[in-house]
Amino acid sequence: MTAAQTGEKAFAGIEPLLAMIRASEKHYDVEKLERAYLYAKSLHEGQFRVSGEPYISHPVAVAEIVASLGLDTDSICAAFLHDTVEDCPEKTSVEIIRNRFGEDVAMLVDGLTKMKAINVEDKEEANIENIRKMLLAMSKDIRVIFIKLCDRLHNMRTLGVKPEAKRRATALETMHVYAPLAHRLGMQRIKQELENLALSYLDPIGYAEVSNDIERKYGQNQNFIENTRAYVAEKLEEYGIHFTLEGRVKTVYSIYRKMFNQNKSFDEIYDFYAIRIIVNTELECYTALGIIHELFKSIPGRFKDYISTPKPNMYQSLHTTVIGRDGIPFEVQIRTREMHQVAEFGIAAHWKYKSGVGSKEEIDKKLAWISKLIDAENSATDTEDFMQALKIDIFSDETFVFTPKGDVIALPQNSTLIDFAYAIHSQIGNRMVGAKINGMIAPIDRVPQTGDIVEILTSSASKGPSRDWLKIVKTSEARAKIRQWFKKEKRPENIKIGQAEVERLLSKYRVKPNEAQTEEIVSAAAHKLGMADVEDLYNSIGYGGVAMTKVTTKLRQEYERVVKPDENAVVTETDQIQTGHLKKRGTGGIIVDGEYGCEVKFARCCNPLPGDDVIGFVTKGFGISIHKKDCPNAVAGMSKPEQADRWLRAEWDVEEFTGAAKPMYEVGLQIYAENDIRLLSNITTALADMKVTLLGINTKKRTETDIIILLTVGCKNIDHYNSILSRLRSVPHVERIERGSM
Ligand code: MN
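Above: inputs. Below: predicted complex with manganese (II) ion.
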């Protein structure tokens, strides 16, 4: 422990602080600082810390840390005064401080005092209250949090003199509340020191062991990081890059945690070393990266570009892990000086460089996502809920995902794209039909990673969320919104829609099933589709909870079984393509809604001829009546809402008349390919070139580098299919293509 940690250092007043700010280039109101110090000193007169030092030594130490972060005069004044209102209520108040030092100092002191106001025995409750106050304060002025963290850091440095129980409680609170906050604000140095100190109180033996191991290992390989640095420096110089090179070794706490979490021994920690290259420009970052990858073998999957995609706390850097001499891996971080300032001192670094109202607004804007947490408070009705919300949002690791506009959405770990959609807006979730991660189509149950840019694809034609989503989503927010949607939707209405749809499908068969047959077909199909009963099937069809292709297929299968048991049971459309000939049922050369073999008759009112645009109408008992599209009866009928379901797309089976264009069938393709940024667009371009209708697209990750793209396309016949196949095989990175659906 250093002298500062044990509190042995003699109290030197504010001379060291004044020397520090004089050395800085920033302007400070020294007169105001001295006044604040003297006022705080007079208020704390006669008070002593447990260590025996005069109490004022603590606020002064806090003020020094605050000043070292580059915070302004008012922040340093507030640091001097942060304990006065609580400790000396008979002598001062926020009002008095406002009169003496102005609105800002008073507001900061008030925020800091309120954070301490709750001090109950129930530890959990107290923590939650503190956090709530902190977050509230933070949303008003982030400086309150900075000062609070400096206060906590000094308390942790001097915690050794406190009784064991107090040490433990404070260390736990630091670990669970303050270190994560510092981390979230990007204040790495403060976070690391808080963690190391907390660990040293919580597990003194483990802390000592790891510390000793570090000594041992660093001693053993001291030359490694030195040699590596020298070697890298030499190479960078050859390229004329101006740089600073740092070597770093993992902290005691981060090693301890890695050993504990991954059940590793100290000697199994391989990313112990890291070097950091700090350059002037972004371009030089990438140049330096190229040089590093030329000098050393890189470990696949370890490269991270936080420059193009900064972390939500504004951290920017390039990370890669390479193998050094003697096979020792080490991490390389490359960033610019400005990025480095942000990495080391967090958002406070911006404060250091900029002044005026603008900088405060800029910081507030950057931290707007933090205030999103405050919203959780509004939706929570009791403390238990709020506690739960905080546990998810603060204590667990989170994923931070970008919207295409660059907004940051914080999601609990393992949240899916559906959670993301609902986190933006319930209407986005309810209309979600797909999603893209970093521009690539991704299944909606995919778990996005921090830094991913996620775009939700919506359609007003979407039938809304599926019940299955309830099993997929991770956040209670999304689950609640989906349930709410179902609640709003009326089951009877769903059933009506579903029933009409099934009747419509059945009416298209040439031989219409009778009532008993219909009942048997539908209930068997419902059962095979995993539905409880026919109503359940209708309801599911109604709200879009079951894929219509499945329903169509099952109905067709059951129809074949029940109505025509003697004929060869199932002829699916893909089978037809595979065998190269289309099964015709020769009924007037009309295809209704993509189906052959419908019983049709030609409407007397317009007598359509081959080549006319036509449309089908489902009659009651006489099959489908074919009208010209511009037939007045058809035009009038189609505008009636109650007939909407009964008008069907119809077309001539042109082949029968001209042998030219053939009808389209859905066919699935599984494309095995090496993942490449241009892959998807090359494939869609190829399809567009051939005027192939793209009906569906999905991707599945196979390995780190390989993916499967599942396409559903419109295809006329086997020749057409083969031509699509050979064209797609010529797309770069495509390895092989198989038939098959999603
Ligand atoms: Mn304090």
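The mean pLDDT is 78.
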